[in-house]
Amino acid sequence: xxxxxxxxxxxxxxxxxxxxxxxxxxxxxxxxxxxxxxxxxxxxxxxxxxxxxxxxxxxxxxxxxxxxxxxxxxxxxxxxxxxxxxxxxxxxxxxxxxxxxxxxxxxxxxxxxxxxxxxxxxxxxxxxxxxxxxxxxxxxxxxxxxxxxxxxxxxxxxxxxxxxxxxxxxxxxxxxx
Amino acid sequence: xxxxxxxxxxxxxxxxxxxxxxxxxxxxxxxxxxxxxxxxxxxxxxxxxxxxxxxxxxxxxxxxxxxxxxxxxxxxxxxxxxxxxxxxxxxxxxxxxxxxxxxxxxxxxxxxxxxxxxxxxxxxxxxxxxxxxxxxxxxxxxxxxxxx
Lengths: 177, 148
Description:
CATH class of the largest domain in chain B: Mainly Alpha
Order of helices and strands of chain B: HHHHHHH
Largest interface: A-B, 17 and 13 residues
Structural class of chain A: alpha/beta
Structural class of chain B: mainly alpha
Strand order of the largest sheet of chain A: 2-1-5-4-3-6-7
Helix content of chain B: 55-70%
Shape of chain A: elongated
Number of domains of chain B: 2
Oligomer: heterodimer
Number of strands of chain A: 7
Mean pLDDT of chain A: 93
CATH superfamily of the largest domain in chain B: Cytochrome C biogenesis protein
Number of domains of chain A: 1
CATH class of chain A: Alpha Beta
CATH topology of chain A: Glutaredoxin
Mean pLDDT of chain B: 86
Order of helices and strands of chain A: HEEEHEHEHEEH
Largest sheet of chain B: none
C-alpha cells in the first residue's frame, strides 16, 4: 500500500519546491564584484564637462556609488530617499549618470535636487559595464580601501538603507585604523 | 486572393527580417563568424531570456559593441567571455558552465534516464514473471452456471 504514497510524496516535494521558488528573488543577480576592488573610472563631471571625476578621488574614504539615469523610472522613485540620505551626511553619495544625455541629467538634478557630492557622466555606458550594471538604479557601497562591500539593485528605500547599508558603513568605519 | 493572403501572412514575419545590426561588424568572414558565435553565447541581462544577439535592449547593444571592440583589439574568445563573467557572473553565459553547483543541472537528464530505465526494467521483468492469468480457471460451479 505504501508504494502508492510515493507519487503523492513526490508531488508534495514538487509543490514545496515551487512554493519556495515563488518567493525567491529572481530579479537581483548576485554580483561577482562584491569583495573585489571597485572598477576604476575617469569621466567628465556631469555638472562641469571641463572637470574630471574618477574613482581615484575617493580612495581613503568610504563612499556610495549610485548608478542612475534621467530615463530611469526607478531612479525617480528613489530620488527623495537619496536626498534624505544625503541630508543625513553619513557618507558621500557619488552619482554615475549612466547612458544619459547631459542636458536631461542636469535638468533632473536642478529640478529634483542634487543628492550627489560628485556625478560622473558616462553616456556610452562603459563604466556601467565595468561595474556590472544591468538595470538602474543600482547602489554600491565601497569602503576606504576601495573594496565593494555591498550592492543593491532596485530603488533605494530608507529601510534598505538602514538595514543593509548603515550597519556595513559603521562596521567599515570602526575597522579603519 | 491566395497572393493577398500570403502577403498578409508574410507581414507577420517582418520583425524577423529586421536585423539588429544591419551591417556586418567585420569585413572579414573569420572575425565576423567569431563575433556572431560570441554574441550568441552571452545573455542580455536586461531581458534575461534572450542572447545579446537577439535583443534590442540598449545594454545588449552596449555589450555587442564591447565584443566587437574586443575582437578588433585582438582579444581571444576566452578573454572576452572572462571580461563578461568578471563583471556579470556566470549568469551572463547563455550556457551554464559545468561546475560543482551545476552538476545536478547538467547531470539531471542522464540521471532521470538511468532512474527511469532501471525502474522500467524492474517493472518489465516483474510483469513477465507473473503467471499468465488472462483466462482465470473457472470453478466447477461457474462452469455449471455457464452451462445452464
